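Residues determine shape. We examine one folded chain.
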Amino acid sequence: MVKNALLALSDEELLKLCRVDLCRGTGPGGQKRNKTSSAVRITHLASGLAAMDDATRSQHLNRAHALAKLRVELAVNLPPDEEFAQPAIPLEPMPRAGRPEYPLWLGELFSALQHHGFQPAPVAAVYGCSTAHLIRVIGKDETAWQHFSQARQRLGLPPLHR
């Protein structure tokens, strides 16, 4: 399945393509935390990408949070659908993390970054903004920033600072 189609799936449709594992959370929390399996790990079977959440004692909330994290992982890790030409989604206004359109927006941004070898200057030119602005936008999402930095490191490029 192509990246944008995968990111546009409803939660129920995406979960059908995944394995959901329940386990006990780690860290403080006492007796309640040690007796319930409220932590959730969701693994996308085709790509092997996974996300986990154990922030609350509610399995349902943790499942929703893990699914949102998985969407971000898919957006930043999967290759572009096709040869990148122009972004279909504008850089501004940036959707808030957690909104349904956010993974599609982030996936489009990372498709542009992948196409341009994780060099921010040509991507900023494509979006019609400054390089500093593009770096600030990427830096707003910790997961996106980490993947951007790791990709630059793998390519032997110098690190950038937010």
Remarks:
- The mean pLDDT is 88.
- The longest strand covers residues 18-23.
- The first helix runs from residue 3 to 7.
